[in-house]
Amino acid sequence: MKTTTKKNPTMKTPNFPFEILVENQTKLVDTITHNTQKVMDIFKMEDTWTKKGKELFEAFMKEQKQLMEAATKPEVMDKGFEGVAEQWTKAMEMQMNYANKTMEFYREAITAANTPKADNPFAKMFDIYNENMNAMVETTRKNMDAFRSMWN
Predict the structure, then answer these.
(1) What is the DSSP string of 10-46?
(2) Hey, where are the domains in the chain?
(3) Dihedral, CA atoms, 103, 109, 110, 111, nearest 10 degrees?
(4) pLDDT tens column, 121-145
């Protein structure tokens, strides 16, 4: 009698692309930080707005750090794809929340601003808003590509 053994195809264990995600998020934060400075250059901001903007950004960075720390805990890593999905959902919610808070901050700051420094500051604001939104979309695309690469 001939005995055969079944070959179990070995599935590649995906490596979570933390370095890529951190790099993508860093680029996004750098873009938004740079654009915040552009807004401040367009309008004369009172010190209270500088303080509020800094607080908003610091809160976002604290949340980002907490999310990354939570995502690297063994109990999350052990969940595999389910853990990745949970963390991805939290990251997207956090980014959208920050985007909404940032847009509200801009709206309030513009309303409270004194004399604009530029001829058409609102046109520039729309450009900056568009750049921030494009950066968020691009970051999401790159993060999705990184997740996709886990299984390639």
Answers:
(1) PPPPPPP-HHHHHHHHHHHHHHHHHHHHHHHHHB---
(2) 18-149
(3) 110
(4) 777 888 888 998 999 999 999 988 8
